């Protein structure tokens, strides 16, 4: 069974809605188990993310997706705590050759969300992972994906918690793309 994990932080649930849309895209393909992990404040003890069981699960996954709201042009502190804890598995490159991708949200139409994705792709590279972009052009008439024009991953923009349908469609598209590529890699 192919296993795909999504690790994300969300405070007001917009990032969670994006994560759920990604899951719906993954589920368009058969034979995949999805592990959805929402980073919780209780997992961060004196500033350090602690959840060895989660890292045990992630080791057995074929793909790991990262999600965080954009805070001050980067990932949230809660997501960064998880990323920093993953350093324990960096030396042995435990995540090498796993597929990875990312998603983020912000209130700005151009609120530096792409910086967040750049950080996530660097994190994936530090672990030797294979970063998957969204493979969707933008600014094309009738293109119902990638309305904000970032190809590195899913960028969404939301005000008052309401997520744009094109952002959800883009997330679903990325989920299916990751699922297909992960299955192909496992052939
Ligand atoms: C501390 C903080 C910093 C933020 N910085 C940014 C930012 O740099 N760019 C942006 O577009 N939105 C920024 N926002 C807005 C959040 O990214 C936005 O509300 C997001 O939808 C929250 O995601 P969530 O619902 O998953 O928690 C910031 C919000 C907070 C609380």
Characterization of the model:
- This protein is α/β, with parallel strands linked by helices.
- The chain has a single domain, classed as Flavodoxin domain (Rossmann fold, 3-Layer(aba) Sandwich), CATH 3.40.50.
- The strands form 2 sheets. Strands 1, 2, 5, 6, 7, 8 and 9 form a 7-stranded mixed β-sheet that branches. Strands 3-4 form a two-stranded antiparallel ribbon.
- α1 crosses α5.
- The longest helix is centred in the C-terminal third of the chain and has 21 residues.
- The chain starts with a strand and ends with a helix.
- The mean pLDDT is 96.
- The structure holds flavin mononucleotide.
- The site of flavin mononucleotide (FMN) has 18 residues, from α1 and β6.
- Pfam families: FMN_red (PF03358).
Structure summarized in a few sentences:
This protein has 187 residues and is of the alpha/beta class. Helix content is 35%, strand content 23%. It binds flavin mononucleotide (FMN).
Helix-strand topology string: EHEEEHEHEHEEEH
- Secondary structure tally: strands: 9
| Beta-strand residue percentage | 15-25%
Number of domains: 1
Fold blueprint:
Blueprint: E1 2-8, H1 14-26, E2 32-38, E3 44-45, E4 48-49, H2 52-59, E5 63-69, H3 77-85, E6 99-106, H4 113-126, E7 130-131, E8 154-159, E9 162-163, H5 165-185
Parallel strand pairs: 1-2, 1-5, 5-6, 6-7, 6-8
Antiparallel strand pairs: 3-4, 8-9
Bound molecules: flavin mononucleotide (FMN).
Protein name: Flavodoxin family protein
Domain Flavodoxin-like: 4-179
Organism: Thalassotalea castellviae
